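#dry-run=false #mode=assembly
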Amino acid sequence: MDPYADLKTPPTTAATVSDVPGGVGAEESTVVGMVMQQPVADMGARTPEEEIRKMKVMVALDESDGSFYALRWTLDHLFRGRTLEENDRLGRVTVVHVQQPFQQYVFPAGPGGSVRPCSHLRCTYTYAAFYASSAVVESVKKAQEENATFILSRALQMCREKLVKAESLIMNGDPKDMLCQATEQMHMDLLVVGSRGLGMIKRAFLGSVSDYCAHHAKCPILIVKPPKEVTNK
Amino acid sequence: MASGANKPVMLVGVDDSEHSVYALKWTLDNFFVPFSSNHPYKLIIVHARPTVTMAVGFAGPGVAEALPYVEADLKRQVTKVLDKMKEICSKKSVQDVVVEVHEGDGRNVLCDAVDKHHASILVVGSHGYGTIKRAVLGSVSDYCAHHAHCSVMIVKKPKTKQ
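#status=ok
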């Protein structure tokens, strides 16, 4: 029996929240803005006599290595079963990528940011902001979608290798808010974030999104730190 | 990096609040109970005990006499906390739990404990302070999230909805 048969079934419900088209070519069940139809968990009244609860884990990804390390760490430490079924009993993983909306205007950097084609005028708009044409917007959007798909397919591949069932989700908006909203709406049990994302400032111990989510997410949050570099103490 | 029993170490930091109790219960429910006897982690509970000097807020002629009472009261508080934690563990039938008490500020105690035991995860509860309270009272979970040398899990007790 194909152990990955379940991963290929399409999602049963889908309420599109973002504008990413559903058919991105991934064979796994790609969920776009799906609202999970689970009963509202009564947090205070959990008892061990209930049937073994599946833990719903949401892992936030961006292009940084830190977030992929977080995913790998989660799969290694939280889903230690040896088979797909064992891991399925433990819980499910939802990998999520939040795209930041493309700014509609572009501020040219540096002198000569936008030189008019007719050079006889010889005026350069060094500090003018201009609205990006729709063609530019389209191509950037397309690049973003491809980027998101690439990230998520890498993530789903990793989950498959570790024999964990996973779903993916793409959202648009400010990562901080979207992550907190998603964990609430989808009633996630745990949110996993890397510790530093794209802003790899050495002195910042915790990235801005992780920090915000640590304060504002309603569910427990796991911050995965990258392994210590050998050069440090 | 593994402890003697070759299992990765999960450290849970507790104080005497309801949030810690909730955090410990949540951790046990999700990481220990489903695995019956074959727990994937070794559980160590760390309690930071305030020193007497931290607890005594006043200075003056009466301090010297008050100290033994303060000390005894602190001891009683600590015992209460530890008993509660041990009771929770045994209710969930999780044996083989190490409980440690260290004197000092929660932040430093927890980060040092992480280094000492080479923990893989540190679990802390969160009082859910807002920005101002956080600035005034300080936040142990915040400090640990920034400075601990391992992954940190912050477990929040959900507020009851109106």
